[in-house]
Prior knowledge:
The chain folds into two domains: 6-163, Rossmann fold (3-Layer(aba) Sandwich), CATH 3.40.50.720; 177-259, no CATH class. The chain has eleven helices and nine strands. The chain has helices spanning 14-25, 41-51, 60-63, 75-85, 104-110, 143-153, 167-175, 177-194, 199-219, 224-228, 240-259, and strands spanning 6-10, 33-37, 55-57, 68-71, 94-97, 117-120, 131-132, 135-137, 157-158. It has a seven-stranded mixed beta sheet with strand order 3-2-1-4-5-6-8, sandwiched between helices. A two-stranded parallel sheet has the order 7-9.
Amino acid sequence: MEKINTIGFIGGGRVTRIILGGFKNAGKINEYKFIISDIQPEVLERLKREYGEITITDNNKEVISSDIIFLAVHPPVVRKVAEEIETCLTKDKVLISLAPKITIAQLSEMLNHFNKIVRMIPNAPSIINSGYNPIHFSPAFTQTEKNELLSVLNILGETPEVEEEKLEAYAILTAMGPTYLWFQLYELQDIVRDFGLPEEEIEEGIIKMVCGAVKTMYKSGLPRTDVMDLVPVKPLGEEEENIKNIYRRCLNIIFKKLKG
């Protein structure tokens, strides 16, 4: 694999904005040539406004000139896109699928046995270079090629290499995980603001509290019951079982769909 100079995206939705945002936040947006395709002109125009000197197009095949091509579409659309681009992919290209559910073997079959394929589960904090983006490479990559690709992807945060069969679990844990917390933390922010705390103190308090709580779970050496008993007053205690049941029901349904 030659030096990576151009990065393409088929699909200009949320995950593409997250990744471009990470490059911009790191001061790297002008170090690469970016080209993005999407069928919605308003999506492309928004990206152009936000990220400046990028190339936008409604033709997926134009993206294939890139060294790295992110397949940033939802699983139901992957087969259609694969049919469009399969004759354009050459052995010097790398395709990174951001879609759960569709395996490398399945995607390779759709692409006439093209095999320079990577799967990555993207994580929203990549937008501030704090992502945790599990990745799996097809066997076609040498270690040198992996390292070259990771040198780019690590701009977004951490990129641990994991077994492919774990990726759907990571989709539940790291990709969707922030959504389980954000609405609660924003609500907590609003409530304590009404109690008189200024914004800067709320921000610091939430960051320190969340980081400290997680570290206590994994670094204190205490069993779960003891960790849960460290704080005597539990304002949501009566609702804990209901909340846990919601987690189990909703996440099991999603996981079965991803693995089905």
